[in-house]
Amino acid sequence: MGKLIVLNHPLIQHKLTMIRDYKTGTKAFRELVDEVATLMAFEITRDLALKEVEVQTPVAKAKAYEIAGKKLGIVPILRAGLGMVNGVLQLIPAAKVGHVGLYRDPETLKPVEYYVKLPADISERDLIIVDPMLATGGSAAAAITSLKQRGGVNIKLMCLIGAPEGVKEVQKEHPDVDIYLAALDEKLNEHGYIVPGLGDAGDRLFGTK
Q: Which reaction(s) are listed as its catalytic activity (predicted)?
């Protein structure tokens, strides 16, 4: 079973409180999501493999380390996932960015795929799917399936807030995928929204309703 990691770093929790607040406007909300994504990326890359190298300092030669192994790929689920991309790129500027477009049918709450564009070498990359909300888990599970069908192997899911129902769904459909959250909330309401959550992440990021 994939791991569920809730990142309780004080800076993440502090900024998440501000993100949740309904009084936080679009500009501040976008900046905070960006900052939390950077902090979460720091944690999600903690287990990257290193290789030993030699570097010449101004004083002497030194044994040092650099990242080895696979390259990284960031895959936002459109549209709200776009709000987390730049935050991750701040830390990993060489990562390639793919996109998976999904929307949730308002009647069935099931995901419908409408767009997929991924790096050509997807099978060679460690992939991080980003989306602010893990609600029913349907969109996240569908995005992971889409990546696997196109050759993705090593996949992680990174969301700001998750509901227990969404975590359960992803773990059921993709037990090999680790899930990283800033918070695990109480439940979903009858409309499929996370409680207490933060509202509609896409609308709050882009100023729509």
A: UMP + diphosphate = 5-phospho-alpha-D-ribose 1-diphosphate + uracil
